[in-house]
Structures are given as structure tokens and as C-alpha cells.
Amino acid sequence: GDGIASRGIGYGVNTIRVDGNDPLAVYLATLKAREIALTDNCPVLIEAMTYRLAAHSTSDDPASYRAKSEEQEWQLKDPIVRMERHLKQQGWFDQTHIDEYCTTQRAEILQALKTAEIQPKTDISEIVTDVYQEIPAHLARQRDELIAHIKRHPEHYPATIMSNKD
Q1: pLDDT tens by residue, 115-164
Q2: How far is residue 166's CA from residue 163's CA, in Å, rounded to a whole number?
Q3: CA end-to-end span of the chain, whole Å?
């Protein structure tokens, strides 16, 4: 199918379909959804139609299932590019502002990365404890298999990956 909006409608759920590559349209859709949710005390499904420019993973080759021209067409609709164009057209931003902003953000990101790198690493045995209150059996099995594998092959993993409590 071409989306899930029809399913929301089919189940009687207020549904908004929006161009997910248009930041302003997404913003307005979320405002409307919030208004409906608060006014009518009901859920609202927002389907943001978008396009994944990057590969699914490092092992994926998008060239095998889509044309280069398709990618180029969608690159023009990139939400960051669209927002930059809009801000420039409104006279709210120029290239100098963008360059300064990017420089500042890069510095903040690099500082955050340095801070994160010196934090104690999370023990691998806690791999899903921040996601589930009760770990599903299949994930507990996978975690246990991973821990056993690491213990069998410690030379392939950093010593900090597991605490000595196991």
C-alpha cells in the first residue's frame, strides 16, 4: 500500500496525512493534531509521507532497487534544504548566519561527543533494560547468548564491555 492513513480512518481514528519532507507542514499538522486531541480527547494518527535518502544499512545498495534520477529528485525535497531555502526567502537567514550556526553546532556536538566518550560504558548485560521493564523471553535469550559468546571470545571485544559481576 501507499501508507497507513486509510487504516486510521478505517478504525475511526482522526488521521492527518502530511508531506513529511515539509517541516512547516509537519509543524502545522502536529498543531492541528494536538488541538483535536485536547478538544475531542481522542487520538490522532499523523502519517508523515517521506523518503529515505540513505541506505537501510551499510550492507544495503539502494542502486539495486531505485534509479539515480529518483534519488536526485528527492534530494531536492530534503527537509533541511527546504527549510534553509524558506528561511533565506523570508530574509530571516543568509549564508553567513548558516555558516555561523553550523560552526557553533559542530563545536557543541564535538564537545558532547568528548563528554560521552569519557562516561562509563553501559554493561552489555543491560542492553535492553532501558527499553523494557520486564525483558521478553526471546530478548533475554539473545542477551544471554551474546554474553556467552563474548565470554568465549574475549579477544574480540573491549574489556569494558562487561562488568565482572557475571
Answers
A1: 999 998 888 888 888 888 899 999 999 999 999 999 999 999 888 787 75
A2: 7
A3: 47
Q: What is the mean pLDDT of residues 70-77?
A: 91
Q: Is the CB of residue 85 less than 8 Å from the CB of residue 77?
A: no
Q: State pTM to two decimals.
A: 0.62
Residue whose C-alpha cell reads 534530494 in the numeric block:
75
Task: Read off the C-alpha cell for 83.
Answer: 527549510
What is the mean predicted confidence (pLDDT) over 46-66? 88
Active site residues: 52, 56, 65
Decide: residue 94, CB within 10 A, 0-12 exposed, 13-18 middle, 19+ buried.
Answer: exposed
What share of the chain in percent tops pLDDT 90? Answer: 71
3-state secondary structure labels for all residues of the chain: CCCCHHHHHHCCCEEEEEECCCHHHHHHHHHHHHHHHHHHCCCEEEEEECCCCCCCCCCCCHHHCCCHHHHHHHHCCCHHHHHHHHHHHCCCCCHHHHHHHHHHHHHHHHHHHHHHHCCCCCCHHHCCCCCCCCCCHHHHHHHHHHHHHHHHCHHHCCHHHCCCCC
> Domain ranges in the chain?
1-50, 65-119, 124-161
Joined together, the cell numbers standing for residue 34 give 494536538
